[in-house]
């Protein structure tokens, strides 16, 4: 019924489902604002902000029907420099044997297991470093189009994100 997910912002806004993609992006921006992910600031002298891009995904239910449209803002963390933008990289990964043990206990006691989709999973960690990012495409303020986002919290794509 629907084609491939858009690869770029321009493809999303010209897609047959452009209204739904724009709603998904607006929802993500509102979530980031309410979680105080960044503040708009004048770019400090000598600082080159890292870029960002939108990633799009159509979520489909178990019957193959369209469920939701997801837009994720991702920092271009590959341009971060060690000892300038970050010190260490930490990846929190669940050990497979722990998950298997949990499933065995749940099966033994006939517990129900639920999967949850967390919208702001990676927006919990406050950043220790000063990281500046370009404003997201399509969501720059006309009055503040020269400003950059000073990240307060980690987002997808950063070296500090999981």
Compact overview of the structure:
The chain has 162 residues and is of the alpha+beta class.
Q: Mind explaining what this structure looks like?
A:
- 19% of the residues are buried.
- Helices cover 22% and strands 23% of the residues.
- It has helices spanning 9-14, 18-34, 96-108, and strands at residues 38-41, 52-60, 66-75, 126-133, 148-153.
Spatial strand order of the main sheet: 1-5-4
Secondary structure: helix percent = 10-25%
What gross morphology would you assign?
Answer: flat
Q: Mean pLDDT, rounded to whole units?
A: 82
How large is the radius of gyration? 19 Å
**Using DSSP, what is the number of strands?**
5
Low-confidence stretches: none
Task: Name the structural class.
Answer: alpha+beta
Beta percentage is: 15-25%
Biggest sheet character: 3 strands, antiparallel
Number of helices: 3
End-to-end CA span: 34 Å
Task: Write the topology of this structure.
Elements: H1 9-14, H2 18-34, E1 38-41, E2 52-60, E3 66-75, H3 96-108, E4 126-133, E5 148-153
List keywords for this structure.
three-stranded antiparallel sheet, 162 residues, alpha+beta, 5 strands, 23% strand
């Amino acid at each position: 019924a629907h084609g491939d997910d858009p690869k770029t912002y321009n493809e999303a806004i010209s897609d047959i489902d452009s209204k739904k993609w724009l709603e998904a992006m607006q929802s993500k921006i509102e979530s980031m604002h309410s979680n105080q992910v960044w503040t708009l600031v004048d770019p400090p002298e000598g600082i080159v902000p890292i870029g960002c891009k939108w990633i799009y995904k159509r979520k489909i239910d178990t019957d193959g029907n369209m469920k939701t449209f997801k837009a994720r803002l991702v920092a271009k963390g590959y341009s971060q420099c060690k000892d300038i933008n970050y010190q260490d990289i930490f990846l929190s990964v669940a050990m497979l044997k722990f998950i298997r043990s949990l499933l065995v206990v749940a099966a033994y006691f006939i517990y129900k297991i639920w999967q949850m989709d967390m919208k702001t999973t990676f927006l919990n960690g406050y950043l220790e470093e000063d990281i500046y990012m370009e404003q997201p495409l399509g969501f720059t303020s006309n009055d503040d189009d020269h400003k950059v986002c000073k990240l307060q919290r980690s987002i997808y794509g950063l070296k500090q994100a999981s």
